[in-house]
Specification:
Length: 291
């Protein structure tokens, strides 16, 4: 009988899981910045798709079901005291404060943990408000979670910039950041008109469908990051930095040699000048003695 193949040990299974969490389906560190560009573009889809519907959402009272017709709910619940501006101001204020706190907290540990873990956790918390909105159709759950996602947005920004810095040398990072913003702008330009068309078609009949589409769009970058975003290979950026340091040292050494040559020439010329002066003095003394 053929020998039975040995099954993987728990340590080997854990190592496979760990490698998948770090490197996704590729199984090795990433050397390309294309996946992070794609992921950055996907992150703006959900917010851009829902933005045409946001004014009517903010005009709805808390603990009021907005489904299936958000227009009817808004018209029946709207009052001069609830124009939506107070809720929006509170949401944006909390979002800004949490973004500030989150940036400080994540920035202090950014170099101690993997880049992918920061990005994946940030994307996970960014999906919560849209999933809660799809499940409940209630601002009472969406607005607090959307405020808390401010910390996730700042963490995602830190992870994104650190990811690019690990792969791109300093001389080309500005260009890489510009390309990433361009990807986000393209996604925003596509998702906003599409969201407006869908809102016009479904907000009075099946607004929950719009909320579920938004939730799926928010989960899409998370799934992409888990499977197709690998931990960056930071040695690429380090090698370029070492090369630039070597070039700087070579330039400094050449400048030092030029300065040294100039100093030696100056010393030689000063010595020649001193010898000539001594010869002139001795000639004058001899001339005086003859006289």
């Amino acid at each position: 009988m053929p020998p039975r193949q040995s099954m993987d040990t728990p340590d080997e299974s854990m190592d496979c899981v760990r490698r998948f969490l770090l490197y996704g389906v590729f199984g090795q560190p990433s050397t390309s910045i294309l996946p992070i560009f794609i992921m950055f573009g996907l992150t703006v889809l959900s917010g851009a798709f829902l933005s045409p519907l946001s004014p009517e959402m903010l005009k709805t009272h808390l603990h009021v079901n907005m489904c299936p017709n958000i227009t009817a709910v808004t018209n029946s619940s709207l009052s001069p005291a609830n124009s939506g501006y107070v809720l929006k101001a509170a949401k944006d204020s909390a979002n800004g404060v949490l973004s500030f706190v989150g940036a400080i907290a994540v920035g202090s540990v950014a170099d101690k943990v993997s880049r992918k873990s920061i990005i994946v956790l940030s994307l996970f918390f960014a999906t919560l408000p849209y999933v809660a909105l799809a499940l409940t159709c209630d601002n009472a759950y969406y607005l607090p979670l959307a405020s808390l996602s401010g910390a996730a947005d700042s963490a995602l920004s830190i992870g994104f910039t650190a990811y690019i810095a690990d792969l791109v040398p300093p001389s080309r990072r500005a260009t890489a950041y510009g390309h990433a913003v361009l990807c986000a702008f393209i996604a925003l330009s596509l998702a906003s008109p599409l969201g407006a068309l869908c809102a016009h078609a479904y907000k009075e009949s099946s607004v929950r469908t719009l909320f579920w589409i938004t939730a799926l769009l928010s989960v899409l970058p998370l799934v992409f990051a888990v499977f197709f975003l690998a931990e960056p290979d930071s040695s690429l950026s380090n090698e370029d930095e070492h090369e630039s340091e070597k070039e700087k040292k070579v330039v400094v050494r050449e400048e030092g040699e030029e300065c040294g040559n100039g100093t030696r020439e100056a010393d030689e010329s000063s010595e020649r000048g001193g010898c000539e002066e001594e010869a002139n003095v001795s000639l004058e003394v001899m001339g005086g003695g003859q006289g």
